Amino acid sequence: KGRRSHTGSVGNTRSSPVSRDAFNSAEREVTEIREVNRKSVPRNSLESAEYIKVITGLLNAKDFRDRISGIKQLLSDAESNPDLVIGNIVKIFDAFKSRLHDSNSKVNLVALETMHKMIPLLRDNLSPIINMLIPAIVDNNLNSKNPGIYAAATNVVQALSQHVDNYLLLQPFCTKAQFLNGKAKQDMTEKLADIVMELYQRKPHATEQKVLVVLWHLLGNMTNSGSLPGAGGNIRTATAKLSKALFAQMGQNLLNQAASQPPHIKKSLEELLDMQI
C-alpha cells in the first residue's frame, strides 16, 4: 500500500506521479489547490492512524526543531484539511498541549502563535479539548517574564473569546480567575467580565451560578489595598470590572444576592461599583 502524499510532507516518501494521476483521473477539472487537499484526506482509519502516529511523533520529539516542525505541520493540516484534524482532535491535542508551555521558549512561542491561527479554523470543534487547552495556554504563560510569550498567550485567550462559544469558556475561565495567582489572575478576571457582557442575556442562570462564586471569592479575600494574600499584584481594578459587568446585567439583584454574603463582601462590592475604572 503506497503512502499518502500527506505523510510525505512530514518526512515520508511521496506517492508516485503515476498513483497521483490514477487517483485524479476522473477529476481533471479541479484546481491545483483542491487537488492537493483531496489527496491528503485519509481514505480509511488505517491512514488516519498513520497520520496521528506521524504528527504526534513530531510533536513529542526530543529535538526542539522536530517539535517546531510538527507544530507547523499541524497548522498546515488545520488549514488544508480541517476535517482530518477535527476527527482526531483529542489525540492530536493531547500531544500538542504540552508544546503550549514547552520548556524551550522558541517552541513555546511558536505553539502559542500557531494556536492563535488555528482557533478561527477549528472554532467550536475545540469543545472536546477546551478543558485541557485553557490551562496549557494560561497557567504559566500569563505570568511569564518573557514579553513575547505573555503577548502571544493574551492573543490566544482573546481569539478563544472571539471565535468559540463563550458558554464553553465560562467554567474554565471561572476556574482560572479563582485559582490562579498574579497577573494571570487579573487577566482572567477581566476576561471573565467580558464573557459576562457577551453571555448573560443568553445564559443568565449559568452565568450567575458560576461567576458569582468567583466574585464572592475575590471580594472576600481582597485586602483594603486591593491585593490578595499570596496572589501577587493588585486585583482591585479587575474585580471592579467584573462587579460592574455583573451589575450592568443583573442590576439590583446583584446587591440583593450580596446581602446574603458576609457584610465586608457587600461593602467591598458597593465600593467597587462606585469606583472609576
Report on this model:
It is a single chain. With 277 residues, the protein is an all-alpha fold. It folds into two domains: 1-132, no CATH class; 165-277. Helices cover 70% and strands 0% of the residues. The protein is built from 16 helices and no strands. The protein has helices at residues 5-8, 17-23, 32-40, 45-59, 64-80, 82-87, 89-96, 105-122, 130-138, 147-163, 166-179, 182-199, 204-221, 236-250, 252-258, 263-274. Helix 11 packs parallel to helix 13 (204-221) and helix 13 runs antiparallel to helix 14 (236-250). The longest helix has 18 residues, at 105-122. The protein is elongated. 34% of the residues are buried.
Q: Give the SSE string.
A: HHHHHHHHHHHHHHHH
Helix percentage range: over 70%
Structural class designation: mainly alpha
Overall domain count: 2
Shape: elongated
As residue ranges, the low-confidence spans are: 1-39
- Number of helical segments? 16
- Beta-strand residue fraction: under 5%
Total strand count, please? Answer: 0
Cα(first) to Cα(last) distance is: 65 Å
User: Mean pLDDT, nearest integer?
Assistant: 87
Strand count, sense and barrel status of the largest sheet are: none
What brief labels describe this structure?
disordered N terminus, 0% strand, single chain, elongated, 16 helices
